[in-house]
Every structure is written in structure tokens, then in C-alpha cells.
Description:
six-stranded mixed sheet; four-stranded mixed sheet; 3 helices
Amino acid sequence: MTKQIAMRISAAILVVVGFSILGLLVLGLVRAIAAEPGVVEPLPAVAAVEEKAVVEAVAIDAEKEGPALLPETVSNSPFVVKRILQIDEPFVHGYYKWDDEGVPDGEIVITVDLKAESISVFRDGYEIGAAVIKFGDALKPTPTGVFPITQKSKDHISNIYHVPMPYMLRLTNDGIAIHAAEVKWGYGTRGCIGVPEEFARLLFEQVELGDRVIVTNGKRLGLGEPIVAG
């Protein structure tokens, strides 16, 4: 009886050893196939998405280093800054820059920052014009807020002060407007926003009635930021 039990145990051990050897052979064959040159295992779906997100984040950071167009990951809303003009010259009184080459058609939004003494013109979110301005003095300060353009007049004469206001864009009913003027350091207005004449002409040709002018006092915009009143 003891001899029969010993024989059965020996047979079972041999079977287990046989299966183990067979498993090792199969595993070695699979590894050999996987190690063949030219066989590349694809990234899992989650890893691929994470890698794409990292690449896009790096691209956005790189674009923010200069005044360039943002990638498509930034909202295509016309009320988001998509480009800032490259200005290498001194930004002084009487200076302006205009460059709308290659910029798509779209809604015009004008921003004025009294603290920076500057005006920016955005079309479809791309800055196409910038200039140094003169604005209201202590007796008649320029109001802040959001103003639609309610009137355009190329050869306007002020009804109040009886002086020329070329390329006038009316903002309020009590005489506040954007218009061409001699922009020099120390010069002020009675609440209007004065810009260099050629800049005023280019702006006049671009805008339509109802386009918004956002006047702030210390609100600066950067790439990807919404163009809103603040």
C-alpha cells in the first residue's frame, strides 16, 4: 500500500514539472517575439492623451514669450486676446502702429487705458492698432466704462467748443468722443480721447456703429485674457 502511494506521488510530481517546463518554453517564445526589432507597442489611450496635453501646454507657454498667435487650444472667441502687436520703437506721444495684414474679418473692440495713456484696436481678438493718446484733464475727466459708438463724422465740428474733431467717433451724448488730435506730452482734452490723425483715419474706416469702446484706468491685457470691462 505504501509503495502504491509513493508511486502516485512521484507521477504527480513529474506531471507538475512537465507543465512548468512547457510554461517556461512558451514564455520565452513570447518574449523573443516581442523583442524583435521594429515592433513598437502603442501607447495606452490615457497615456497618449496625457502626452498630448503636455505638448499643448508647452506650446502655449512658448507662445506667451512673445507677441505671437496662440494655438487652437485657446478659445476662438473674438473677445479673447489672440495677438499683441510687436512694438520695438519708443511708445511716446504722437506714436502709433497699425498692422492688420493677414488678420481675419471680425468684430472690432477698442480698449483705452487712461493710466497707460494708450488705445488698442482688436479685430476678432487680434490687436491691429495701438497708439498713445491724450485724454480728459482735471476739469473734464474721461469717463470709464463700456460705450458703443453711436455716431461717425469724418469732418466733425464740435457743437460745444466749435473746433474741428476729424474722424469723430461719438461715445456719449454729452460730447465724449474719439477723434484726431495733436497728441503731445502734457496736452489734455475736455474728456475726449485724442489720437494721431492717421491712426484716427484707419480706425474710422474699420469701425461700425455699435462697436464697443472699453475705457479703463489701469487694466492691462495679456495673451489669452478676455477683453472685458474692468
